[in-house]
Amino acid sequence: MKKNVSLQVKGSVRIRITGSFCERFLNLCAYHGIALRNLTPAPDGYEAVVSLPDFWKIKPWVKKSRIRVKVIERTGVPFLMQRYRNRQALFLSMAAAVFLLFFLSLFIWDIKINGNISVTDEKIMDYLLSEGIHQGIWKSSVDYKQLATDLREHFQEMTWVSVKLQGTRLVVDLQENTDTAMREDGEYDPSSLISNVDGTVVKIITRAGTPWVKEGDEIRKGDLLVSGQIDLVNDSGEVYGHQYVAADADIYVKTRVSYTDRIPLKQKVKVYTGKESSRHLLQFASLRIGLPFFLHSYREYDCIRTRKQLRVMENFYLPVFFSKITVREYEIQEQNCSKEQAKRLAQRNIDNFLQKFQEKGVQIFQNDVKIETTDSMCIARGTICIIDKAGKRVDTVWKDIQKEGTQTE
Amino acid sequence: MKKDKIGNEEKMFRREERLNLLADRTMLPKEIISGCCSISVIGQNELVIENYKSILEYQPERVVILTKQCRVEVSGKHLEIQYYAKDEMKITGSIEAIFYKNCR
């Protein structure tokens, strides 16, 4: 492939070799480093493809081996240039296109963010914008190392950030630590677990730390569940010191979740009329050309817009966008729903709600949701009793250590 | 006269043995030490030969190549030399047989 491209650029000729000592000529060519390609036998000799620079070198070997060489085909850029030498506009536009491509390659035309979970793309883009990094800035004006450091400092959740340039695309690769208390080595600093829900403790398995609650205890939000402080007791039962660890436990708490769902019996529903029109847009920087010029205007409509950016290669983005805007007309209609239908819908909503809990691994203990219907509405209301894992890590222990430190001083 | 020829052959055989041993000891490729040709065949349609001297004969049914130690004859149908350079040659087509003809 690479050889073929270089052959096209340099230009190549297909020659017919005739005479009595053709093999000698072939061997002389090979000996002097002239590569012959697609060598095929022909009547009274051979045919072969030679690159144009090599073709100019073969004259002495032609004489030496007393053969005749005839050019039968010319291919490649030099011959094309020769053929179109009078069409200067063509060459000028080609040069302009190459220059334009080169000029556009000096800017950043796309920003891609990989690896973010809790920090949204918009947040990162807003930060980049505040730092003066946006589509259309010079590549050389960005200090990538500094930007990676700034990103890491600004977003505490990010543990690793890499900013690199691929073509005309700025790629921000990052890794987040969703558990902010966890250190980079995967361990926790001395810390305690407090409750993040109100409820009753059903089961507690403590692996590290001192449990402060037992099965059956009523707990409220913020109550200490497992302390990271372990009392060190001597033989006579006196506390002579403390050891601080990262509390670790599985605490299952029975909690109640309230559920309300209202379904009106008279509902306003979008009904699409089936009329739709679309418009294609070509956008270059702030210049926009659209076809057709105006969109059909409807009273009420949905607008769907898809946008694609032009790129030469995978990472060579250009500031040219193709957009398609589709407008679909709809009418608002009032639909009367029977009580039975509303009940079924309410039940389906409850089932979906419960299924979401089950997917998270939450155990449903009791379901007290009741569906009532009035003349205008169907209401599903009640509480659902669930058994879920509880516990939120807090650094309360450090305060204790500091307090103790000041006391001893 | 015949005795001389047998003596020469034995000499050459011993020389080759020595060169092979040297190639083994120095961990260098045998084709570089002894100057023999290297042929790689892919399926029945492609053959790449290195370390040769010249082409002696080329027809669609037969290609004869001279190497330092012997003649290599490739016979088949629709044989075509894809490229012929100083170090390497690639022959494509329907290869039926490869013969080594000793020319010592």
Task: Report on the architecture of this protein.
The complex is a heterodimer of chains A (409) and B (104). Chain A is an alpha+beta fold. Chain A has 4 domains: 2-82, ACT domain (Alpha-Beta Plaits), CATH 3.30.70.260; 110-176, membrane protein fhac (Ubiquitin-like (UB roll), Roll); 188-265 and 337-409, no CATH class; 267-335, no CATH class. Chain A contains 10 helices and 23 strands. The model of chain A is unreliable at 401-409 (pLDDT under 50). In chain B, strands 1-2-6-5-4-3 form a 6-stranded antiparallel β-sheet, with no helix packed on it. With 104 residues, chain B is an alpha+beta fold. In chain B, a hairpin with a 3-residue loop joins strand 1 (38-42) and strand 2. Helix content of chain B is 29%, strand content 52%. Chain B has helices at residues 2-26, 30-34, and strands at 38-42, 46-50, 52-59, 62-67, 70-84, 88-102. The chains are: A alpha+beta (409), B alpha+beta (104). Strand 2 (36-42) of chain A pairs antiparallel with strand 5 of chain B.
Q: Trace the largest sheet of chain B across and list its strands.
A: 1-2-6-5-4-3
Shape of chain A: elongated
Shape of chain B: globular
Structural domain count of chain A: 4
Oligomer: heterodimer
Percent of sequence in beta strands of chain A: 35-45%
CATH class of the largest domain in chain B: Mainly Beta
CATH architecture of the largest domain in chain B: Sandwich
Distance between the termini of chain A: 78 Å
How far apart are the termini of chain B?
14 Å
User: Can you tell me the residue ranges of chain B where pLDDT is under 50 for at least 5 consecutive residues?
Assistant: none
Determine Rg of chain A (CA atoms, Å). 38 Å
- Identify the most extensive interface between protein chains: A-B, 17 and 15 residues
Query: What structural category characterises the helix and strand content of chain A?
Result: alpha+beta
The proportion of residues forming helix of chain B, as a percent range, comes to 25-40%
Mean pLDDT of chain B: 85
Helicity range of the residues of chain A? 25-40%
CATH topology assignment of the largest domain in chain B: Immunoglobulin-like
